[in-house]
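User: Hey, my collaborator sent me this sequence without any context and asked if I could get a structure. I don't really work with proteins. Can you help?
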Amino acid sequence: MQELLERKKGLRRSILIVDDDYIAREILGKMLKDRYEICYAENGVTALDIIKRDKLKLSLVILDLHMPKMDGYSLLKLLRSDNELRRIPVIVLTSEKGAEVESLKIGAADFITKPFDMPEVICARVSHSIELAEDSVIIHETERDELTGLFIVSFSFNTEKGSMNRTTICQWMQSSWISTVFILLTSCMVEATATKY
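Assistant: No problem. I've predicted the 3D structure and written it out in structure-token form, which is a compact way to encode the shape of the chain:
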């Protein structure tokens, strides 16, 4: 979480580009190198090793679907099934219309079509996917009280675009019996703490 907050303050984010086509890797790298630290892999097996090694550092994976050794579909499924790696968003590279839908169903954050669009479109897709993933992690990490594990009614965090307030309204708190249990538990905790001292 701390590394994520530091990245949001302006440190350069890291992107892994995975494609067996050297020219495609280089084109994408040149489009993104001014804003991001770029590393490359030519197949899914090498990419998985890099992702496991740099899981806390990587902000995004750009993944071709058709590669030797391990294809993009297999790698995407592995990433989505791993609790530590699933937070890393994946944008898939494809020239097939059906592959776009299939990859999104598996868990891709977005897709980039081949041949590549304008660099501005690709940069916007990359930036948007990273921001969504990072905001999701921050919300997930800050939505519960560390001591009690209960949902916090409201919380806020800062982004590059300024302060953002989020209000989480818990459906279960509206239920009268849950509210009663919550009040009883809270009063028991206060009473136990008072008798302890």
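In plain terms: The CA atoms of residues 155 and 166 lie 6 Å apart. You can pass these tokens on to your collaborator as they are.
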